[in-house]
């Protein structure tokens, strides 16, 4: 059996292994490298394959036990492993059983199961919208995006440049409070959206503070897990906490907040950035909100966000939104 993508080819061998050759700049040959091959090499991590398929820059194999392996480019989650990380060797695709055929397109993959049943009956939690505000004030109001629908899961992150006091806004539940122990404090809240267009949420502080507020909305059912981590050293890279995902198809929302003396930009791998927040002047609060998924059940690993300004005052959140 043969399959081909944009610039590569696959052949299913009689022993259940897969041979690959051609262009490899996006790891589509699965041999652990990104080296172009003019002769066939073996795809690593595949054994007992009974059928194969190809996308534009990724490969797929269904094994004799009904499971699926995938490798190559993964910018849109086409490998199905719950990340956006490209893979130079094959990885297992969680949640698939009894698969008898696989195929792929530009940035997606499909699998046919012998039972004909969909492999993911629970669906997935999906990003809806985000909004936010930064300032130097004793209260800040943030608009709920107009695209939010009744029943959506709202997650609200608040960060201040001092050990402020922030009560839960009306109708919101506290997920947690985190602090660096001296002068940076952050809160996470959640509630179900009421679906009122143009509504807003107001965060009230005990005194004027540098503050950043980020509100993210998801088409999901509820927050099922929350974890936080305060920075332990000085640097530009800040690590989040790992968190447990109990329901496949969940989204994991990450939020980083840091106290710095100048505007900072952020970068993060394997996640989709949704909002950056920045104030002004000395001691301002900057933030990044991003998410990843759909996530398989199990431990969602820590993620690292890197700011353009180093700081020893940083807090990271990991919040799981179930479908």
Question: What would you say this structure looks like, in words?
Answer:
This protein has 323 residues and is mainly β. The chain folds into 2 domains: 2-113, Regulator of chromosome condensation 1/beta-lactamase-inhibitor protein II (Methylamine Dehydrogenase, Chain H, 7 Propeller); 126-322, no CATH class. 0% of the residues lie in helices and 57% in strands. The protein has strands at 2-4, 8-12, 18-22, 37-42, 49-54, 58-63, 68-72, 87-92, 99-104, 109-113, 126-143, 153-160, 173-179, 185-192, 200-219, 222-230, 235-239, 243-245, 250-260, 266-268, 272-277, 284-295, 298-300, 304-311, 314-322. It has a 5-stranded antiparallel beta sheet with strand order 11-15-12-14-13, with no helix packed on it. It has a 5-stranded antiparallel beta sheet with strand order 16-25-19-22-21, with no helix packed on it. Strand 1 and strand 2 (8-12) form a beta hairpin. 44% of the residues are buried. The model has no long low-confidence stretch (mean pLDDT 91). InterPro entries: Ran_GTPase-activating, RCC1/BLIP-II, Reg_chr_condens.
């Amino acid at each position: 059996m043969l399959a081909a993508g944009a610039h590569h080819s696959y052949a299913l061998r009689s022993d259940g292994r897969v041979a690959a050759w051609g262009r490899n700049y996006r790891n589509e040959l699965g041999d652990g490298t990104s080296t172009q091959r003019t002769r066939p090499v073996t795809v690593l991590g595949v054994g007992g394959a009974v059928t194969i398929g190809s996308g534009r820059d990724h490969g797929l194999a269904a094994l004799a036990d009904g499971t699926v392996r995938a490798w190559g480019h993964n910018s849109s989650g086409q490998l199905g492993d719950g990340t956006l990380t490209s893979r130079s060797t094959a990885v297992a695709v969680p949640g698939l059983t009894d698969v008898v055929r696989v195929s792929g397109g530009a940035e997606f993959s499909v699998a046919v199961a012998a039972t004909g049943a969909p492999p993911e009956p629970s669906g997935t939690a999906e990003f809806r919208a985000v909004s936010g505000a930064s300032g130097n004030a004793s209260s800040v109001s943030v608009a709920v995006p107009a695209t939010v629908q009744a029943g959506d899961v709202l997650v609200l992150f608040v960060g201040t440049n001092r050990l402020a006091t922030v009560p839960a806004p009306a109708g919101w539940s506290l997920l947690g409070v985190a602090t660096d122990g001296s002068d940076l404090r952050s809160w996470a809240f959640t509630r179900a959206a009421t679906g009122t267009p143009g509504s807003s949420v107001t965060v009230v502080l005990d005194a004027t503070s540098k503050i950043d507020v980020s509100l993210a909305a998801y088409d999901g059912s509820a927050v099922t897990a929350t974890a936080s981590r305060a920075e332990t050293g000085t640097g530009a890279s800040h690590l989040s906490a790992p968190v447990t995902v109990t329901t496949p198809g969940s989204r994991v929302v990450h939020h980083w907040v840091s106290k710095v003396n100048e505007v900072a930009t952020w970068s993060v791998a394997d996640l989709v950035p949704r909002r950056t927040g920045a104030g002004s002047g000395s001691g301002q609060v900057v933030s990044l909100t991003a998410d990843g998924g759909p996530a398989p059940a199990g431990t969602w690993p820590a993620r690292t966000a890197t700011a353009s300004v180093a700081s020893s005052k940083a807090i990271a959140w990991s919040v799981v939104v179930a479908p």
